[in-house]
Amino acid sequence: MRFLDRDQIEATGRWIAAHQSHEGEIPWWRGEKADPWDHVFGAMGLTLAGLYPQAEKAFRIHRVTSWTRVNHDPMHPPG
Q: What pTM value is reported for the model?
């Protein structure tokens, strides 16, 4: 099993942060939808990379977001 080295972790964190919205949401890709599962994985990546302010933003928006209303798939509307 191969693990990422510190430089790779930091580069990945910077990539995630570059795609994070101003409010803290981490979409699948820039400008597209987000979901709670992948959003939290992105927030954990920011934490591992030492990008604590960005991670805090991500966790904060996760706590206050109604995921059934935000960025839903238009082909599968909520409710």
A: 0.78
